[in-house]
Amino acid sequence: MNTELTSLLRAAVGDAHVLTHEDPSADLSAWENDWRKRAQGRALAVVRPGNAKEVAAVVKACAAAGASIVPQGGNTGLVVGSVPDDSGTQVVLSLGRMQAVRAIDAANLTVTVEAGCILQNLQTTVDEAGFLFPLSLAAEGSCTIGGNLATNAGGTQVLRYGNARELCLGLEVVTAQGEIWHGLTGLRKDNTGYDLRDLFIGSEGTLGVITAATLKLYPQPAAQLTAWAAVPSLEAAVSLLGLAHQRLSAGLTGFEVMGQFALSLVNKHFPALRVPLWAESPWCVLLENSDSESETHARGQLESLLETAFEQGIVSDAVVAESLAQANGLWHIRESIPLAQAEEGLNIKHDISIPVSRIPAFCTETDALLQREIPGVRLVNFGHLGDGNLHYNVQAPAEMDARAFLQTEEERVNTLVFDMVARYDGSISAEHGVGSLKAAKLPHYKDPVALSLMRAVKLALDPDNLMNPGRVLTP
Prior knowledge:
It contains 16 helices and 19 strands. The protein is of the alpha+beta class. Strands 12, 13, 14, 15, 16, 17, 18 and 19 form an eight-stranded antiparallel sheet that branches. The chain has a five-stranded antiparallel sheet with strand order 5-6-10-8-9, sandwiched between helices. A four-stranded mixed sheet has the order 1-2-4-3. Keywords: FAD, Flavoprotein.
């Protein structure tokens, strides 16, 4: 136990906001356990600062002591990137107390918010002010803005609004040396040198600590309509996407694809959700039309789109939500797939991106490869077809123990899938990040010049490798 360091940490943030194992009443498990239960670490301390100055003081104390720091938001990540190792020497820097929405600039269409603010709370706050913050994902009730930016989160509306990077205009960051970069600009044009903001977004806490951000807002749409369509193939789903782009243009804000087996798991484990059309079709699509004119106009566009799709044979059946409650129910089915898969047993998750035009061929070839290599393997394929991001997950054969499958087959399955992703000019991480789970894989699939540049950036900004070491880049 480094008593000198913990004394400095207590002085920086107050005794009540430094938790250690020396205190028998302190339970650090919420900060030390990975959300997917893939890893359990042991922290020297969990420190909960209340503002950027306190974060800076914590970072300076840790840097002086040579103690590495693990920044943490909602701890909902999927690549083991926000929990400490088991050495008992790392400091978990939890941003959970920094939750304020500092300001909404209506004329500039921006909001400035602290890193610990839960995404859903931000959505509600700006909605009450008459605006839309379009970042939306399944973990929005617990994930935080800082974590969203640190991983460059995607979600269901990337098709229209882009990833977290595209939604951010400025940052406040504490550097690895404990200095504060005051970069909370709301400017959409600023050509005064390197774009430092984009270095920190997606860096997973390896370069510095994001403490606040200025984000883009949008006017609320006059109407949002959701449709659920059964399609005969992935090729048909891609054709429907093209038709939706043509007919709905910027109004197309969501386009999700879900395989039959993925939906069968929701039907099995959450029958009350009443999954539509899944039993009769190999694939279903969930699409959303956001309209600035009226619900009547939006419904007319959507119905015209579906009529044309029926005529072309790319949709076999469809349901259009008649109310907001029905629309939310359809989206809830989509967002319940990971939960249903967890109920089915441990599994191997992949968060990949492929050019949309090549997704059908990728799935055909990779499905066949996996089923040939592991007879009976079950594929849980779903995701954001509109932006080329699939959650191409692998479930053990029904008769095989899931934990044994994970232990014996994960490395082989990952290599088979990632090699195919590379063949199809894709990425092994679309929106979840690299963390420690994929760090050793990155050198095999990332351009060597790109990796060299990334290492140079890391060395320049964090020369002592104290910021979330072992994540993204291996030593």
